[in-house]
Amino acid sequence: MNFGRGGPSVVVLNVGGTRYSFSREVLKDFPLRRLSRLHGCLSEQDVLEVCDDYDRERNEYFFDRHSEAFGFIMLYVRYGHLRFVPHMCELSFYNEMIYWGLEASHLDYCCQRRLDDRMSDTYTSYSAEDLQAAEPAAGAAWGSGSTTASSSRGGGAEAGEGKKWLERMRRTFEEPTSSLAAQILATVSILFVIVSMVVLCASTMPEWRAAENRSMEEQSRIIEAVCIGWFTAECIVRFIVSKDKCEFVKRPLNIIDLLAITPYYISVLMTVFTGENSQLQRAGVTLRVLRMMRIFWVIKLARHFIGLQTLGLTLKRCYREMVMLLVFVCVAMAIFSALAQLLEHGLHLGKPNEGYASIPAACWWVIISMTTVGYGDVCPVTVPGRILGGICVVSGIVLLALPITFIYHSFVQCYHELKFRSARYSRSLSAEFLN
């Protein structure tokens, strides 16, 4: 609309049912870019590109937007402070800001932090697998609307059914809450892990390894073979139905599965080639080490428990903070161990304390003091050494607490992210159960 000299002097804006009146001179230099564009509109098409509708007789322009959010934006125009609308989603208010021509930098600092946290939580709630899974669905929706030949449609339908079946199988083995079958499979897998761990712990007991319990040892080997067979079959099926075989091999949980399964087959091969009572002591030690590596089976529970998944994801995302924590501890350990060795053994202030005979020996005392464990096997006896010990304990508490805050916030974020994904799969499970 032309705002020339012959035009009306008052402009009426109707935003979600709330009306605002402005003079055309005020609208010309208005801080909101969308409204200032109205001053330069020369045709109906220009006007409709800015607003949703307009009434030429009353010179009223309609915007189908959130009226309360626009009210807060008008408070920013008047007073220069922009804050979120109470009880309104931060992302929804941010969309209103973008529509009217504002940016995140216009928000007050406290609201900027809220918006950053909200956007971070939202964007991390979707993994790369979820986004990849959405692409075939989008492709299928696009293909359903095309007008191709009927023969090509039949081939595409068959290919689509095959992809759906593979996707269903993949979710059954990878996501324990994705379906009823996945929950049953996860329960069976957990039972196998528990049984294998019980057998592993019992096999180290002297009563279990006694000569009269040979039959029990044979039964434990049979149970172990059955558990390994289940884990092997599960790993093979997950590898077959995976989308990206290279990515499958690189995943930490799959590497742990491989480390837990491989030692059994190596020990079986070594037993076959060297015999049960071989005189090769090294081979015997190797077999015991390989059998003890079955403890990695416990980590398989991470597939079925959000707590363990949260711990792994937190360690993955907070590796910088973990390195920083390690650097803090190493620097403090180097300083306090050198001073402790000097005060307790080097200066001969009293009877030399043999627990601090060297700096590496003093490092053990530093680490148990900084972590407030205090076994008591090594302790300072001189007055300067005890003062140094107190400083060491207090410094350890402070240094360990500094990076813990970042790790804690990351842990909470990872937990909510995984809980969100689990709840989404639970909703699909409920729909499947009802159907």
Could you explain the architecture of this structure?
- The chain is mainly alpha-helical and 435 residues long.
- The chain is built from 17 helices and four strands.
- It has helices at 24-28, 33-36, 44-50, 67-79, 90-100, 109-123, 128-144, 150-174, 180-203, 214-241, 245-250, 252-274, 281-292, 306-317, 319-346, 359-370, 383-434; strands at 10-15, 18-23, 53-55, 60-63.
- Strands 2-1-4-3 form a four-stranded mixed sheet.
- Helix 10 packs across helix 12, helix 15 packs across helix 16 (359-370) and helix 15 (319-346) runs antiparallel to helix 17 (383-434).
- The longest helix has 52 residues, at 383-434.
- It starts with 9 loop residues before the first strand and ends with a helix.
- Mean pLDDT is 77; it is low at 1-6, 124-153, 278-283 and 429-435.
